[in-house]
Amino acid sequence: MGRATIERLYQAFARLDGAAMQACYADDARFDDEVFALHGAREIGAMWTLLCDNVRASEAARAAWRLTTHDLADDRVRWEVHYLFGPRARPVHNVIDAHFEFDARGRITRHRDRFDFWRWARQALGAPGALLGWTPWLRAKVRRQAARTLQRQLAKTA
């Protein structure tokens, strides 16, 4: 049951369908990665929708977008994504290990993504990411900015 949900989640992400991604989560689901710590399908869905909207924002972003999955199992998957980040449209190739827990209906209750933050920061943020991407200070700054952006996204759907 978990494998089918994981497949649905990443198929929806590949086609940039945040609403379909949100439908894969239980109402009280938890998500965390190197940037976000979210509770509830609404917050998680808003994050995915925000990411999908960013890809759809320009022709260049849509052309750079590529998502692949590897090593799919009942409770985990490795996924890779290519996209453009930020106002400078920096190319990013991120490799993420995802782990999941599910309820009896096959909905995701826990989703943990892990990736090399310093590697991501070097690509997404350029020189500041290369110099400071290993520091807790930069990680905290990125988390705060992402939280503010997500709150604006949630306000749109309130």
Overall description:
This protein is of the alpha+beta class. It has a single domain (about 1-155), classed as Nuclear Transport Factor 2, Chain: A (Roll). The chain has helices spanning about 1-15, 20, 40-55, 60-65, 115-125, 125-130, 135-155; strands at about 25-30, 35-40, 65-70, 75-85, 90-100, 110-115. A 6-stranded mixed β-sheet has the order 2-1-6-5-4-3. The termini are far apart.
Topology record:
Layout: H1 2-14, H2 18-22, E1 25-32, E2 37-39, H3 41-56, H4 59-64, E3 66-70, E4 76-85, E5 90-102, E6 108-114, H5 117-125, H6 127-132, H7 136-156
Parallel strand pairs: 1-6
Antiparallel strand pairs: 1-2, 3-4, 4-5, 5-6
- Count of discrete structural domains: 1
Q: Low-confidence stretches at least 5 residues in length (pLDDT < 50)?
A: none
Largest sheet: 6 strands, mixed
| Strand portion | 25-35%
Query: What is the highest CATH level, the class?
Result: Alpha Beta
> Biggest sheet, strands in spatial order?
2-1-6-5-4-3
Helix content: 40-55%
Q: In DSSP terms, counting alpha (H) and pi (I) runs of 4 or more, how many helices?
A: 7
CATH topology call: Nuclear Transport Factor 2, Chain: A
Q: Which terms would index this structure?
A:
single chain, 158 residues, alpha+beta, Nuclear Transport Factor 2, Chain: A, six-stranded mixed beta sheet
